[in-house]
Amino acid sequence: MSASKQTHDHEEIKRWASARGGVPAKVKGTGNTNDEGVLRIHFPENSENKDDLEEIPWEDFFEKFDEEQLDFLYQEKKADGEVSTFHKFVNR
Description:
92 residues; 1,4-alpha-glucan branching enzyme
């Protein structure tokens, strides 16, 4: 069984995402000029559905992340030992 971890540390989140080819993103069509909308970590090399996500700067991502008081729930490895990209945002 693989264990999940939870954090709101910006550097830890960036490290995890970058190690897997992930970038900060938002769902297109959500938010407005003052709000990034629905946040995601996007893995462009592993995704067929690139049209509904828009890459954003880490600074904008974390501004919204902190404003919404979110935590990042994630896995380092799958049960079989493979690197995992499982993650989700949860309330602190």
